Hints:
This protein is an alpha/beta fold. The chain has helices at 2-14, 25-33, 37-52, 121-127, 149-168, 180-194, 225-238, 243-253, 255-268, 277-283, 290-302, 340-349, 387-392, 401-404; strands at 75-79, 83-88, 100-103, 132-137, 173-178, 201-207, 240-241, 288-289, 311-313, 316-318, 327-332, 353-358, 377-380, 395-397.
Amino acid sequence: KAKLEFYTRQFLDAISPSNYLVTNPEVLRATLETNAENLVKGLKRLAEDAAKGTITQTDYKAFEVGKNLATTAGKVVFQNDLMQLIQYESTTKDVYKTPLLFVPAWINKFYIADLQPQNSFVKWLVDEGFTLFMVSWINPTAQHKDKDFADYMQEGILAATQQIKKITLENEINIIGYCLGGTLLATTLAYLAAQKKERAIKSATFLTTLLDFKEAGELSVFIDEEQVEYLEKRMSEQGFLEGSEMALTFNMLRANDLIWSNVVNNYLLGKDPFPFDLLYWNSDSTRMPAKMHSFYLRNMYLNNNLAKRKIKLCGVDIDLTKIETPAYFLSTAKDHIAPWKSTYLGAKMLKNAIFTLAESGHIAGVVNPPAKSKYPHFVNDKMASTPDEWMKNAKEEGGSWWIHW
């Protein structure tokens, strides 16, 4: 039923009159006014995109990493086979004692947290007095095909925390995990809890993170036994899954915004794509190692083994209900990738969590700087038995969730 609904919507989006020359008044008007120059430009762009195998979503020439994206001053202080660790010094006189580690998902680049200065979470954090460390995951090649989820834990979060302790001489660390990075953070906390080492993590923040994948949103449409087997076969041939394949999946979740609006703008109206930093970052995807991605799809999405306590990492049973670390969950109301009611179920599994709900979606709801105060958020420091009950007693706060966090 979910597949039928999803692909019916894809079909209806595709046949919308606005997507065609003769049924879009704006395109017809532009064609008459420019003597069809819009169509000439559009066909040229269509040919260029067809050669690249992707739809141009933004003006890629308008951005450059290190020039007007990811410009907060930082330095690589450690690296291994799976990641680099970047350190950002606080810009304030008074500095928080406990260092902070940010763990992004490894399907896109780390600079989602450090876009332009006016919407950089990294810049805001160091300006608030944090000594910040950032994991920057590698872009896997065939040689990483046997890297699994446990390797991302050992060579990712655990390696990073070990280095941070050496650098800062502090015994406790605060950690933020974004999306898949949050799923990894939770499994790492459970791994440490089983060995009575959890106290090294002072607090954990989960941004749009799924821990219970029973109702995993529209991505579930793409994940069943047949499709996973197909992906595994593809990955076995090259050792990884191309990031562009994952990007297409995410684009289909918001086809009108990310596909058809660009078809009309670029190919029918012949206009230049609008420069948008989020869409530039969105196109800068990374590959997924074959073994890790297979483990993730089967154990999380397909069988929900993380919530069922049926996962072992490095011989240790992963039980999220054993986690006692104070946890802050931030989800977004219009998230198609990590639906907020499902992320709430994950928060309920932890012993010491609070939940906050921001407006907007998976990215825009998180990257919401206080200066703009674009989207409000809802707070309720008491967990309820159901997400609907939590929402019923939640209080709306204006502006960014960053301040509340």
